[in-house]
Amino acid sequence: MRRRALLVLPGFLALLLPVDASAQKTIKVGYPMILSGPGALFGEPSLKGAQMYVDELNAKGGVLGRKIELIPRDTKGNADEAVRVSRELILKDNVDFLVGTLTSAEGPAVSTIAKENKIVFVAAIPKTDQLTAPANLHPYVFRTASTTTIEGRTAAEIVAKWGVKRIGTMSPDYAYGQDATKAFVEHLKKIKPDVEIVDQQWPKLGEADYTPFINAQMAKKPEAVFSSLWGGHFLTFAKQAKPLGYFDALKYNFIGAGEAASLESAKTMGADYPVGIWGNSYDVWDWKAGPDAHKQYISRLKEYTKQDPPSSWPITGYIAMQMLVEGIKKANSTDSDKVAKAMLDLTVETPIGKQTLRAKDHTANRGQFWGKTVMDPKLGHAVMQEVLYIDPAPFMD
Amino acid sequence: MEPSFLFGQFLGGLTAAMFLFLIASGLSLIFGVLRVLNFAHGSFYMLGAYLAWQIVRWVGPEGEGFWLAALGAALGVAILGAAIERLLLRHLYRREELYQLLFTYALVLVLADVAKVTWGTGQLSVSRPPSLSGSLQLLGITVPHYNLFIILLGPTIALVFWLLLQRTAIGRVVRAAALDREMLSALGANVGWIYTGMFFVGSFLAGLGGALVTPTQSIVPGMDVAVIVDAFIVVVIGGLGSFWGTFLGALIFGQVLAFGILVFPGFSIFAVSALMATILVVRPWGLLGRPIR
After folding, report:
1. A122 and A216 part of one domain
2. Is residue B241 part of a domain?
């Protein structure tokens, strides 16, 4: 679904990798990811997370006695380009596996290449349900990303507790926005039948002026709003909605999916953030209730990326790589057919807890962090007041 | 439907229209005089936004530094625009128009990469200046002071430019340059500098638009391409090269967008695109434009 230019990175990383003639051949993993354009804001840290996992693993001797070589390629946020670089990775670089992709257009596109070439592909970020829907599922595709179903339904579980009846939605008019919003609406109606959807606004993706949508929505007087505007889109929307009194009118009963409460969004907006709304994030750096493994992961990440607080996106690449490597271990082979079988119902202890790739749809029970935002005077931007990791297992189909 | 809501929708459309007018007027001015369709106009707009962010960072977000940033950004972009005209674009006037198009398109790609290398790909944000950070209640709706400022700024700029073009000596020369550059040149006017000056002014407007939009939008790569499409729609509706046409086009664009979503929810862009297509068929030179000879 989603954004720094590191045009030299692929070549650079390849140079950095140590060449050890005595070891067996390295296991090559292609990493198609958005590394330029707006999506690189998320793609680049995702690659960092994957690279951190690989560096740590190689330092410990690798897997099956072999080191892993990560080969990143820039998809430029374009499904055609993602397909092109994935083919190239398979044919020219002879990669054993594919991990990565970001948008809900790239994921399904690369999945077809994985199917054609019978190579295991682990989708790290695409959320569209289509990726692993029965019609598109094949033995080689796996997903460690969250899904639109999980995201929408989790938000519905939260909103159901607010005691509100008149609900509105504000989401970008394309696959991701529509799917997440549909999942939210359907699940909320199911668990709380007395709610009424009073308004649904569909600004186009990349809309510059949300004012008409905001006014139209306020006129319908919803008590709470679900939104899947993400990244810069959420930023623009919130900057225009706040002075119009939109969040005050909602009494801050606004829940933003699409990582509205991520460090990246909160930091950029600073004092302009509509503090008090609910939002989600792939990761948080101060998950007090979290396992020790998460705390250790965060401290290693701070050191690796020299960022404090660290980005919320490296976890996407880290877990995707971890799942693949555990699959290789279990299969005791790098043969994609064997690894694909080993990954079915594979449970792995990740930094955010146990994750299982369900045999049924090859999808992990990947929940996200949700919370109501408060201003952190020390950091100067909004943070989640109480971080909730919501395990989606109970309401996945 | 409550009247206060319709009024709110109207004001929202008006604010959007005035932002678009700022940007599209520069595009239209440059085309009107130089006959160059400047694809890079949106890139100038984007640079205005990034420069404004940069200057706000230098002078600090507190206080009224934003105004300095807006003016500084607009001037910076204007100087860049003038330099590009003087040093590069100039050599293409005698070639086919296709070469000018290709050149300005190349500028789009180059400037996008320059912005990316300089400011990264993250989202940047500028706050509204404290003097205009409040809002007022007008006929039952909340109107942010900043939006009101934009609504007033648009017509002010339109009027100033119209007076300059119609009532001053420079304005007469510029109008003459738009009509017949060879004749004006033969009469002894320095057409070269008039062109550079117009490019300066047009780029200034783009830069100013980009800077002024930052308190209401995130600054992201890609904002150049997004805005140039809207600006083209505005000038096509109003008539390429027609100043008041651009004003009218922006007004129509804003209102059609604001009210279009009430009629066709989920097809926000449809109404505007349909309007443009209709005008292209019925009156290809736009509402207030002149058929090109």
Report:
1. no
2. no
